[in-house]
Design goal:
The chain has 882 residues and is α/β, with parallel strands linked by helices. It is 45% helix and 16% strand. It has an 8-stranded mixed β-sheet with strand order 21-20-18-16-15-14-29-30, with no helix packed on it.
């Protein structure tokens, strides 16, 4: 008797019933053996029935949050009434599906309105909102709902805002003055002022659970940084209203750090376990390079406390920010390791660890669910982690069905459940980006990948390129709203980083799992993960360093809509050019030139920088940063401005790669906070600064950066003369500090020393002032000198050399505090003022501008004229504007 084998696909295509399960089980039981090729189920059209309810719930939650309870109740009542009236609608042959769809949409809208109304009521319930409006001081019991995190530094005028620890929490009890205790449940943002304890170079020593380095580089130690979510504390603090409208907190709780916080309730067991795992990962990565030590905890558990502002900005410029925190893509990598590619879920050749261990399909799905739960616990159940777990769990449904058409319903279900669970996600840009990126990977990427394969692109490269391009095409408009910038290097940077994300994530999770039981093994795994992590960081830095890495774009929804139109035009034109590869080559070459921007070509097209420039005053906002030309690709930098990105952009535009000397006139933040941007990727010979090291925290910041780069720091004093290339300069202020009197010498008697001047009243009066000579031009740079120091300078031995200069850098951003005698003595032909647009200080003062013009000077200012370049030599003097 001859038997005819039945292919497995016939069993999968059989009618549903009891007989189908044994067949399916037999197929998956033998999945460890390669029995031949099995075809996936035949797919029908994409199932979009859950998309309208999910979008309706999303929109409803976003609109209802922050409204009065009556609106939410009205929407719920209206939707339920409409659902009750739907059966009265006249039936027809085609009415069943629209009626069912309408019912689903109405019920989801009602559920979203009810959930948003309840969450919004939390912001108004109890005594906390009223006490916040009165700025009352209270004693409260709070439960932490997030990990503590350090604030990023912000330059405010001439100083940097102090470091603080931010913690999301819920107020559970409020103890009033009369001894009454009110039980409540109000979400708040706790701001804890902490002190820096200094020590070490920026990015040098690792930190432990109770210490970290702030983004400014100083060492911060506080027991607040070691607290775990679900810990209960008793705090005395001042309440204040929420800082912005539509916030998800009822108030801000400002706590002054007075030592060890008073713990009244220990964290839960799950959080203690997660804390031990996270601490083990930090310890395992503590011996790695700075980049790997910063990136690996972010990739694995979303711990970004080690990320420096410079690295964070590089990731933003290249649209790689999603790799700095837990994301659905990273979680999907773990699922793929366990389950294999989702597209092979119903194949006998399905891959992954589970089928190789002989685990059945259903058992694998259960194991994947357990992995999802553990992922949420270890990475903290905050909205970003829940979002990542939900979007990554789309692969689990693919495993259960083996059909791509089930992925869109799975994503819609995830969106619906998450919005109902936490309506504030409906207003989260991060949630929007996650959903849009996941949707792009499920819809556009497969089609684009298939198109690339048809044109001869290797399958793996086609999948990676299609995924990066699809995610960028749909996410770029949202990113533009947040950053007012469009990255031109996002696709290639994401494509290059994609090959390193998977090994870094897998090895990082392996180090996380093994750290509690075998630290040497965890350290070895972390050491292996160091290489892909450093690759990702290098890709980000290299991409961000390109002059044309991004273009400014309107940061509004109108700008996002414009970008959508531009993207569609590019796609349509690209399809037209499919049959013309030469045109593709030309377009690619033009894009490469726009990104790389070779200096000769840029100078021809834009005219910037002008040939023969001698001094450039960079446009860095409310601060100072200037460059003195030394030679091709080299310049002396005087001050660094308040923002590393702005000064770095200016230096890149000028083609500066070598800096013999950085002169910091004084240590106010608007002159030194941008120093990381000056040092970024450039050879720096030395840093020279004033000897008056105030403010102390900014002086220490400069010394830490210099020590980390092994750049010597010296002090400038009047009488010093130096030369670099065709540039020479003389320091005319501040005077050298007199040495201490020797025994028997009368006070004030120091032979051979310049006459002593009164001690400076502040950092401004201690500014380094320079008289610069370049190609026959004389330039006087006054830093932020105030009238007392200006008058003393006008009486100093260098006063005669200051007469009749060609260019004057006006002191202190053109403030009203100027000495008329010094301005009259200098009598500049050109006066340059560096100040920020619409600054709150009124710089430059109208009286100062009028006095300069009355003396015959042409006055130019960066807030109106942009970056300014002085060109010429001898008697010729011209100014070019960027």
């Amino acid at each position: 008797m001859r038997t005819v084998p039945v292919p497995p696909v016939r069993r999968d295509e059989a009618a549903p019933g009891a007989a189908s399960e044994p067949a399916r089980s037999s197929v998956h039981a033998s999945s460890g053996q390669r029995l031949g090729s099995a075809r996936p189920r035949q797919e029908g059209p994409t199932d979009l029935r859950l998309v309208p309810p999910a979008l309706a719930a999303w929109g409803t939650a976003a609109l209802v949050l922050g409204t009065s309870p009556g609106w939410a109740a009205g929407i719920v009542a209206g939707c339920l009434l409409a659902v009750g009236l739907l059966p009265l609608v006249r039936r027809s042959a085609t009415a069943s599906w629209p009626r069912a769809s309408a019912t689903a949409v109405l019920l989801c809208v009602a559920a979203a309105a009810a959930s948003a109304g309840l969450h919004g009521a939390d912001l108004r319930r109890g005594p906390v909102p009223g006490l916040a409006r009165e700025y009352a001081t209270v004693t409260a019991e709070v439960e932490l709902t997030s990990d503590p995190r350090l604030t990023r530094p912000k330059v405010r005028g001439d100083h940097v805002a102090p470091t603080a620890v931010l913690v999301d929490a819920e107020v559970r009890r409020v103890h009033e003055a009369g001894g009454t205790t009110v039980v409540t449940r109000a979400p708040v943002l706790m701001i804890v002022d902490v002190r820096s304890v200094g020590g070490g170079a920026a990015g040098g020593q690792p930190y432990d659970a109770a210490g970290a380095r702030s983004a400014a580089g100083e060492r911060v130690r506080s027991p607040w940084l070691g607290l775990l979510p679900s810990t209960r504390l008793r705090v005395s603090a001042r309440l204040a209203p929420a800082m912005t409208g539509g916030d998800r907190v009822a108030a801000v709780l400002r706590v002054r750090d007075q030592g060890v916080p008073e713990v009244v309730g220990e964290p839960s067991g799950a959080q203690r376990l997660a804390g031990r795992l996270r601490a083990g990962l930090r310890e395992a990565t503590s011996g790695l390079s700075a980049d790997a030590r910063a990136l690996l905890p972010g990739l694995v558990v979303g711990d970004t406390s080690r990320i420096t502002p410079e690295l964070e900005e590089a990731f933003k410029e290249t649209d790689l920010t999603h790799t700095l925190a837990v994301s659905g893509a990273n979680f999907t990598i773990l699922l793929a390791l366990l389950l294999g590619p989702p597209g092979l879920a119903q194949h006998v050749e399905r891959r992954g660890i589970a089928p190789r261990l002989g685990i059945s399909l259903r058992g694998t799905a259960v194991l994947g669910g357990a992995l999802s739960l553990g992922f949420v616990v270890v990475c903290r159940p905050d909205p970003s982690v829940l979002r990542a777990a939900a979007c990554g769990a789309v692969a689990l449904l693919a495993l259960a069905t083996g059909r791509r058409r089930s992925l869109i319903p799975a994503l819609a279900t995830a969106v619906l459940l998450l919005v109902l669970y936490d309506p504030w996600l409906a207003r989260s840009y991060g949630f929007l980006l996650s959903v849009v990126a996941t949707g792009a990977l499920l819809t556009l990427a497969p089609r684009w990948s298939a198109g690339l394969r048809r044109r001869g692109v290797p399958p793996r490269l086609a999948e990676a390129l299609a995924a990066a391009a699809a995610a960028q095409a749909l996410c770029a408009p949202v990113v533009t709203v947040l950053s007012a910038r469009v990255s031109l290097v996002a696709v290639p940077c994401n494509l290059l980083a994609e090959f390193a994300i998977a090994p870094a994530t897998v090895l990082g999770f392996a180090a996380l799992a093994t750290a509690p039981v075998g630290m040497p093994v965890a350290e070895a795994l972390a050491w292996c993960a160091q290489w892909p992590a450093e690759w990702i960081a290098e890709i980000a830095r290299t991409g961000a360093a390109l002059p044309g890495a991004g273009v400014d774009w309107p940061g509004s929804w109108a700008g996002a809509a414009l970008l959508v139109v531009v993207t569609l035009v590019v796609l349509l034109v690209g399809r037209r050019l499919l049959g013309h590869p030469w045109w593709y080559g030309v377009c690619g070459l033009l894009l490469a030139l726009a990104v790389v921007q070779p200096p000769p070509l840029t100078r021809v097209i834009t005219g910037w920088p002008p040939p023969g420039w001698r001094l450039v005053m960079c446009d860095v906002g409310q601060g100072d940063a200037m460059v003195l030309a030394v030679g091709e690709g080299a310049g002396v930098v005087v001050d660094a401005g308040p923002d590393p990105q702005l000064v770095d952009h200016c230096l890149r535009a000028l083609g500066i790669t070598r800096i013999p000397l950085v002169v910091l006139t004084h240590f106010h933040a608007d002159h030194v906070a941008g120093l990381p941007g000056v040092l970024r990727g450039r050879a720096v010979g030395a840093i020279e600064a004033t000897g008056f090291e105030e403010p102390a925290d900014q002086a220490a910041f400069v010394r830490r950066l210099a020590a980390a780069r092994r750049v010597p720091v010296t002090s400038a004093a009047a009488g010093e003369q130096r030369r670099a290339g065709g540039l020479s300069w003389q320091v005319v202020w501040p005077p050298p500090s007199p040495p201490p009197p020797s025994a028997g010498s009368p006070p004030g008697s120091h032979p051979g020393v310049l006459p002593a001047h009164p001690a400076p009243e502040g950092p401004n009066d201690a500014s380094v002032a320079m008289l610069v000579r370049s190609a026959g031009l004389r330039l006087l740079l006054l830093g932020d000198l105030e009238p007392p120091a200006q008058r003393a300078l006008a009486r100093s031995p260098a006063a005669e050399a200051l007469e009749g200069v060609d260019v004057l850098k006006v002191a202190h951003h053109g403030s009203a505090y100027q000495d008329p005698g010094l301005i009259h003595r200098a009598a500049p032909r050109l006066a340059l003022i560096s100040c920020g647009a619409n600054n709150t200080y009124g710089h430059p003062a109208p009286g100062t501008v009028a006095a300069l013009r009355a003396g015959g000077a042409t006055v130019l200012r960066t807030d109106r004229d942009g970056a300014l370049a002085v060109v010429g030599g001898g008697g010729e003097l011209r100014v070019a504007r960027d």
